[in-house]
Amino acid sequence: MRLVNNLPVDDYYTYTGPVAMPPAAISTWYFSTHARAELEVEAGGRVSQNVGYVYTLTDEDRAYLLNLDETLDLDAMLAQMNAMTGIRAEPRAYAHMRRIGEYSGRVHGPILMAHNVVDGISPAEGTPEYANLMASVGTQHLLTRVYSGLPGHCNFTEDQMLALFEAMDGWLATGVAPGPEAFPEDLGFVHDFEPGPWPQPPQN
Questions:
Q1: Greatest CA separation for the chain
Q2: What is the pLDDT of residues 26-55, one digit of tens each?
Q3: Is 0.90 surpassed by the pTM of this model?
Q4: For 84, 155, 170, 185, which has the most beta carbons within 10 A of its beta carbon?
């Protein structure tokens, strides 16, 4: 789970952020098991799928896993995972999720989207998708994306939170979206960060 979610090992097992959140291991397990099960009950079936996905391991991932257990056959494990990429969402459940969770991008006020660069619960990879959606309906001027270099979920320092609130307050008061100067790098914000693809590159 840690490797799939691209979470640093230290913050995965021992939460080091300023907010009183559980370690990423606990929250990732919870949302991928219990919370997902509740959602599937509500939706009436499987809500996600992996059709066309390709599971891979970087050289660094391989070295890490083999250091844990040198007898692992990683190629066989990947082959088994990639042989199981035919899982499809059930139509009824998919329709339910679209009905309650599909965004239109047609917003009427400013949105300041703040994310941690690595977050196993709310991945930063989703932010450009929403930006593209807003651009498709002409509301991109109402969106500003900001990223904190801290890993974790909602892991922002007090100074970062203050900067975010001040930026939003100024935007609402003046109608002018905040620029990069409102989010100083010396506070831990990351400029020019571009998340990876969402959710995973499809098989060619």
A1: 62
A2: 877 888 889 999 999 999 999 988 888 888
A3: no
A4: 155
